[in-house]
Amino acid sequence: RLLGKVALVTGGASGIGESIVRLFLKHGAKVCVADIQDDIGQRLCNNLGEPHNVSFSHCNVTIEDDVKRAVDHAVEKFGSLDIMVNNAGILGPMCVDIREFELSHFERVFDVNAKGTFLGMKHAARIMIPAKKGSIISICSISGIIGGIAHHANVAAELGKHGVRVNCVSPYGVSTNMSISQLPEKYSAEEAKVILRHSNTSKANLLGVELTTDDVANAVVFLASDEARYISGDNLMVDGGFSSTNHAFQVYNK
């Protein structure tokens, strides 16, 4: 499905990003893994196969020069850039009282999740506009739907005339090391996994199915492939219908 295409995945060393990288390679793409976790990212690339198919580039998505270098590295290494996946993201500390929330935490989350996505789009567009083709996909969250997500749609409207597609994937809760780390330290890793899994499944709309990083990666592969060649400006919800349900009504008993 992705044979002959070149992809760059930010935050590709672990979690959802790692699943995307693995699935992209499985479907024939050449992949540049961009991440701040140098040891983990390089080890992943070494384990995945030959250097002519996958490469690592250090990248802090809050630093424009890093993002530019990662994009240029992908082009220099593999000859082009067809797919840009803005996956790098962090979670802020758990805080139920806005009066207790530190501005520095907000700024850090905004820098990585919003500014980092913007920089990824900007430098991918630098390569894709002259090529008159490309696919930019940003990983968001169902939590952003409540407030509305328009960033990817605005860029889709701008880049459409250049043949570049821009989409977004918003998953429901996924158990990853990052999400598990948000739980109190009093829980062991295994206890935290069980608690998080229960929290996700108990609130889910689609019962009997647990969302995995591979499910999110499958959605990204679809949007990156030619099967989605006329899809742009879309926010693909991978949430089992959670965002379509008014949980206050509870019309349908589970």
TrEMBL record:
GO molecular function, one term: xanthoxin dehydrogenase (NAD+) activity
Source organism superkingdom: Eukaryota
Matching InterPro entries: NAD(P)-bd_dom_sf, SDR_fam
Keywords from the named record: NAD
One cellular component term from this protein's GO annotations in UniProt: cytosol
Biological-process GO terms, alphabetical: abscisic acid biosynthetic process
Keyword Signal applies: no
Gene3D superfamilies linked to this entry: NAD(P)-binding Rossmann-like Domain (3.40.50.720)
Family classification: Belongs to the short-chain dehydrogenases/reductases (SDR) family.
Protein name stated in the entry: Xanthoxin dehydrogenase
